[in-house]
Amino acid sequence: xxxxxxxxxxxxxxxxxxxxxxxxxxxxxxxxxxxxxxxxxxxxxxxxxxxxxxxxxxxxxxxxxxxxxxxxxxxxxxxxxxxxxxxxxxxxxxxxxxxxxxxxxxxxxxxxxxxxxxxxxxxxxxxxxxxxxxxxxxxxxxxxxxxxxxxxxxxxxxxxxxxxxxxxxxxxxxxxxxxxxxxxxxxxxxxxxxxxxxxxxxxxxxxxxxxxxxxxxxxxxxxxxxxxxxxxxxxxxxxxxxxxxxxxxxxxxxxxxxxxxxxxxxxxxxxxxxxxxxxxxxxxxxxxxxxxxxxxxxxxxxxxxxxxxxxxxxxxxxxxxxxxxxxxxxxxxxxxxxxxxxxxxxxxxxxxxxxxxxxxxxxxxxxxxxxxxxxxxxxxxxxxxxxxxxxxxxxxxxxxxxxxxxxxxxxxxxxxxxxxxxxxxxxxxxxxxxxxxxxxxxxxxxxxxxxxxxxxxxxxxxxxxxxxxxxxxxxxxxxxxxxxxxxxxxxxxxxxxxxxxxxxxxxxxxxxxxxxxxxxxxxxxxxxxxxxxxxxxxxxxxxxxxxxxxxxxxxxxxxxxxxxxxxxxxxxxxxxxxxxxxxxx
Length: 585
Prior knowledge:
single chain, alpha/beta, TIM Barrel, 8-stranded parallel β-barrel, 15 helices, 30% helix
């Protein structure tokens, strides 16, 4: 795997933490079937289990945004575009390779090593059974071994790592909502709610899955319909947020439950309300003694008020809660959301493990050929020739393998260590001898106010009137610090008054150093300060007005032997910041 700023010190810390998490998982979670007990989930030893999970988005079900495909949202449209480029045979080959490359045992090994104890599998029904329109005999159910075999393999990897596997029907027959990409829905066909045949197929699929996995204790539960979003009473209510009764949704979920219980009495059944798992009007009370209520959380505040209505449902109906999806935000937001739900005895599953982009544990790299394809689809370039497109797609599929991704350990650190500790630790090992250079973007790992201080630390895109974004450069790291990419290099930009960055450096021998800060004027007359081990060593450092990168010298800085913590403070923001250069006198 490719790490940004990998160092042995961090690896050692991760190894120790991972061992502790794995031991905790073996002791607390590897004890047979999970079950609902009052407000919590427990194992067969009656011990409370907090699920800490990752969703495998993009494997069985692709959404266009994961791969920067612009308006090409649904998976069937992505396939059609690829077929236009390389033809049907090569398209089939590419997709088969995708399924065997995107998620492998290496992915699950990594999740276990980082501290996760569960995996949520977003399933596309068409890997298990054909669409109603494609059934050879109308009204009958044909089964495909491919999806079941992939699930079997995933379960074996999870079992080997003592991780629970939660099956999630992400794309139901016909599609369960008006958000088309999340269920790969064909809008010209009857939806799940408009077709009895689609509903029958959904029930049959769950019965087939439950029969296959009834005696598998490492199956954590069945998440039976992902994010319904449908206005049953008012078709204009596209999300289902105004629905008062949700009668068709409840009826189908009860039918699925009954079918599962015919063959499987043991596993948890997880239900999701309308409006993407948020509207439970008319659905409760629960109708099964081993049931968990799931809700999803994106782009709102990580505070008690944001989950109060779900906690009220938990109290009223005596049912456990599970944050079945969350993510797509900053490290600061991740840390606070996970802290919030865990202190309320609520487990979680993050979305998602890998995609193009920087705000998840693994980033899929874009090869030049795939970028050319994206450019052509987005109207920015000519369509590549078939042979070139085929080779580019094969390379991109290879890039999805765990060992070929960029691992964002800052994301993992925020989801686990930072939830339990405010300590700032080195992002990269910086040893300061007679001379050394520290990249500005390699500031310490830790939370806002401990490793760095930034005034815009998260995105609240579902909160009206709040327009913060986190890292506005959307590169390298997922903190609030704004980082811009420039031809493979990175630098800090959009600095604001009072923000700061901290760097932990190791000094083999105490001495006096000159620290040269490489900066450039951005949009204001910026002023810097430097602190060492909590004490000011320079203040009022004006950023030169000259164009381009300049050096600001801080002479005669005393550094102690061992660890020193250096803070670069933007007393007045408005500059770019590239690196710190240390020179021993």
